[in-house]
Design goal:
80% helix; mainly alpha; 2 helices; single chain
Amino acid sequence: MTNKRDIWVAIGISLLCFVLNFGLFIYFYNQLATPFITEEQRVSNAEYIMSLTVGGFAVAAIIIGFFVIYFLNKSKFGRLG
């Protein structure tokens, strides 16, 4: 049975994964796409980038957070909480 600490650890890991995923995406998007598109194109793409990637990275981060908690609880290192 999960306790409150496990939930907070999963939330923390999820937030960390979200920030890292989104930061890496934005960094590489700027490095790879910016030289080839105009500022007008970047502004028009921003809506799609935010609507698609933020949602996708949030879902991925939540799944990763709960997988980490699950595998840490099953590991030989002991249980969280």
